[in-house]
């Protein structure tokens, strides 16, 4: 059973909440979160708009592709390949990055492709949910910071220029996402339909689904694992859709220039085994890499797998 937490309980006893919250990430890598504060109307409007868009003809949806940048921004289908795999996932998705700085090469394109003809509420509904996820993230990192041995405000200056991404997902019947670890810091998931399978620390696989409307699923990614020397390591998970499945995911990234390195509380690698998702260490034996460079390195590992000669 994936642990469930109500974020409204944090203020009553921050230390106790943080200890339990961190332990859940340590033991499971996934938690279910209630009391998140995102209104049902905001979620419903975004879900309805996503559903309406995914029902359109392929040629219509393809107008919102950013050729050459599939998987980074805009619409794409059957494009993404998990690290360690050489077959793309069977799914269609729309990636939304709402905070691209003015100098970013894709700045300006996001707002353009978010304008969907004859669906005027698409863009505002997505911007509302994106902002709500940002506000929620600012709350949930407080107990994590406390567990990590820092002040609860530790992440306040590490997220304001984030390039976090919201992803609308549609899996057809028999659609799938291969077993994988998330490379980002945290991942929010809105999904009340079956199809998500998580591998627990003991090796057993469990089906995970939100059990109420006021519930989101949250998991840690590689960046969180790196900052805690794998104490809060990411969990393997996959999607197997026996019927059509729609979800909304929010991938949290710290600011691009934030340096990912184990915090002082975590001076030894958990279990004494250096995970393969850690990039190469420096001359002093420590890993210290910017968020920007970490993402680039992980993408390179994916392409190495795809391009490797087959036996």
Automatic annotation (TrEMBL):
One Pfam family it belongs to: DIOX_N
Keyword list, A-Z: Ethylene biosynthesis, Iron, Metal-binding, Oxidoreductase
InterPro entries: DIOX_N (IPR026992), IPNS-like_FE2OG_OXY (IPR044861), IPNS-like_sf (IPR027443), Iron_ascorbate_oxido_reductase (IPR050231), Oxoglu/Fe-dep_dioxygenase_dom (IPR005123)
Reactions this protein catalyses: L-arginine + 2-oxoglutarate + O2 = guanidine + L-glutamate 5-semialdehyde + succinate + CO2; 2-oxoglutarate + O2 + 2 H(+) = ethene + 3 CO2 + H2O
UniProt domain Fe2OG dioxygenase: residue ranges: 161-254
One of the protein's GO biological processes: ethylene biosynthetic process
UniProt pathway annotation: Alkene biosynthesis; ethylene biosynthesis via 2-oxoglutarate
EC id: 1.13.12.19, 1.14.20.7
Record-stated family: Belongs to the iron/ascorbate-dependent oxidoreductase family.
Protein name: 2-oxoglutarate-dependent ethylene/succinate-forming enzyme
């Amino acid at each position: 059973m994936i642990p469930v937490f109500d974020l409204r309980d944090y203020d009553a006893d921050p230390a106790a909440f943080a200890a339990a919250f961190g332990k859940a990430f340590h033991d499971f890598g996934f938690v279910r979160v209630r009391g998140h504060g995102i209104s049902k109307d905001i979620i419903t409007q975004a879900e309805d708009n996503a559903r309406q868009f995914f029902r359109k003809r392929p040629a219509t949806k393809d107008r919102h592709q950013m050729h050459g940048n599939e998987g980074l921004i805009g619409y794409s289908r059957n494009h993404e390949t998990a690290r360690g795999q050489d077959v793309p996932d069977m799914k269609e998705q729309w990636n939304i990055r709402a905070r691209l700085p003015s100098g970013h090469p894709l700045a300006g394109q996001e707002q353009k492709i978010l304008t969907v003809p004859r669906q005027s509420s698409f863009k505002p509904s997505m911007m509302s949910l994106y902002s709500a996820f940002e506000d929620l993230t600012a709350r949930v990192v407080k107990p994590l910071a406390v567990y990590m041995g820092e002040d609860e405000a530790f992440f306040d200056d590490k997220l304001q220029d984030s390039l976090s991404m919201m992803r609308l997902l549609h899996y057809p019947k028999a659609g799938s996402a291969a077993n994988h670890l998330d490379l980002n810091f945290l991942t929010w998931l809105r999904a009340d339909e079956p199809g998500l399978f998580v591998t627990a620390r003991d090796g057993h696989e469990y089906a995970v689904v939100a059990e109420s409307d006021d519930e989101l699923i949250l998991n840690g990614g590689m960046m969180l694992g790196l900052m805690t020397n794998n104490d809060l390591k990411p969990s393997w998970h996959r999607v197997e859709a026996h019927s059509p499945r729609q979800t909304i995911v929010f991938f949290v990234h710290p600011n691009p220039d934030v340096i990912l390195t184990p915090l002082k509380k975590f001076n030894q690698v958990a279990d004494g085994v250096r995970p393969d998702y850690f990039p190469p260490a420096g001359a002093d034996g420590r890993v210290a890499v910017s968020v920007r460079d970490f993402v680039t390195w992980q993408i390179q590992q994916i392409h190495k797998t795809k391009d490797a000669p087959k036996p």
